[in-house]
Design brief:
- By secondary structure, the chain is α/β, with parallel strands linked by helices.
- The chain has 10 helices and 15 strands.
- The strands form 2 sheets. The protein has a 9-stranded mixed β-sheet with strand order 14-13-12-11-7-10-9-8-15.
- The longest helix has 20 residues, at about 330-350.
- The protein starts with a strand and ends with a strand.
- The structure holds alpha-L-sorbopyranose.
- Alpha-L-sorbopyranose binds next to loops.
């Protein structure tokens, strides 16, 4: 029998839109024993809240998240507000017995992320590291599992945006350290770190350099990291909002004994793969068009929004099957431990072990 899961989304920003779209679309692409009901959209800007609720299919609006969490007719609380509010809302939602979703980075400190992880320990939960659900990343993961690339020598990730240097852009909470916790380290590099842990396993130590280019800001506009993975491979990570010309260049490159792979979100339906097996003269990178058959016919490409639909759909499928799901708050906490080590490495100038 189909059960209805009633959602409350806390947050009316761009992630609120991406999540709303996923709630609207998921039943069209996944056969689930659940109906998803978009019950309440909660936000603090009354001037735009009603219009957003109407446009994205929310039944009701609310101004105070505490009222929403207290309601017995809500099953899932989705936290998509600025980072400094994640812990309080997510923990309260878990204590109220809800299923909890939270945007990334999970928290602004490892103390918060550990408390969040503990609070949801007996509740289904998810952190929206949506890029794990890019079909090319899923293919890459299965190729790594099949030993097509490893043993891995190098893991290289860069997440490059340019808007930090745009004077016409109004200041927002992402550049306010008290709210965002960090700059590109939490906002952009958290994605690269989650992909690194997903694809190449735990990170043992880090060295780091951070730079603030804009006068008056306290957050890192650029973060660079040298990492040693537990499996013996080495990693380099770069995240910046000052990469002139790069809109959203979230890329990874991996080199191993058996092959290599390259991925760039700006061309997200492609995975470049190099197979080291053939004779050297016949070797070369192949550019694979990767498509997700769940959505359309082969070769009919997908976009950014599908990564959120897939995260939600896979979560609901795991819930129905009583299977574990990742990325969960534990995954978010593990990323937070690396973020914390990077921040300490940058301020001390020394090599720091990841806890
Ligand atoms: C920042 O510009 C941002 O929106 C991040 O917050 C998202 O996590 C990333 O996916 C795209 O860029």
């Amino acid at each position: 029998m189909e059960k209805t899961l009633r959602i409350a989304l806390i947050g009316q920003g761009s992630m609120g839109r991406a999540h709303s779209n996923a709630y609207r679309q998921v039943a069209s692409f996944y056969d689930l024993p659940y109906a998803v009901e978009q019950s309440i959209l909660c936000g603090r800007n009354p001037a735009t809240l009603t219009a957003m609720a109407q446009r994205w299919g929310w039944r009701e609006t609310a101004a105070d998240w505490r009222d929403v969490i207290a309601r017995p007719d809500i099953d899932i609380v989705d936290v998509a507000v600025p980072n400094s509010l994640h812990a309080e809302i997510a923990i309260a939602a878990a204590q109220a017995g809800k299923i909890v979703f939270c945007e990334k980075p999970l928290a602004n400190s490892t103390v918060e992320s550990a408390a969040m992880r503990d609070a949801v320990s007996n509740r289904p939960n998810m952190v929206w590291f949506n890029y794990r659900r890019v079909p090319a990343i899923q293919l890459l993961r299965s190729m790594i599992d099949d030993n097509r690339i490893g043993p891995i020598f190098h893991f290289r990730a860069f997440y490059l945006q340019e808007w930090g240097n745009d004077p016409s852009r109004p200041p927002n909470w992402k550049t306010d350290k008290a709210i965002a916790g960090s700059g590109v380290l939490g906002d952009l590099m958290s994605h690269s770190l989650d992909l690194a842990l997903f694809l190449n396993g735990p990170i043992a130590t880090v060295q780091a350099l951070q730079r603030t280019f804009s006068r008056g800001r306290e957050i890192d506009d650029a973060t660079l990291v040298l990492a040693r993975f537990a499996n013996g491979s080495v990693g380099t990570f770069e995240a910046t909002r000052y990469a002139t010309g790069c809109r959203n260049r979230n890329a990874i490159e991996i080199h191993g004994e058996n092959g290599a792979a390259r991925f760039d979100l700006e061309d997200m339906n492609r995975l470049e793969f190099f197979d080291a097996a053939p004779p050297r003269e016949e070797q070369g990178f192949r550019n694979l068009l990767v498509s997700a058959n769940r959505y359309w016919k082969p070769g009919h490409i997908v976009g950014y929004e599908h990564t959120f639909i897939s995260a939600l759909g896979d979560f609901l499928q795991a819930l129905a099957d009583n299977e574990p799901f990742e990325p969960d708050f534990e995954s978010g906490h593990r990323v937070q431990l690396v973020i914390d080590a990077i921040a300490r490495a940058a301020s001390s100038g020394s090599t720091v072990e990841v806890q």
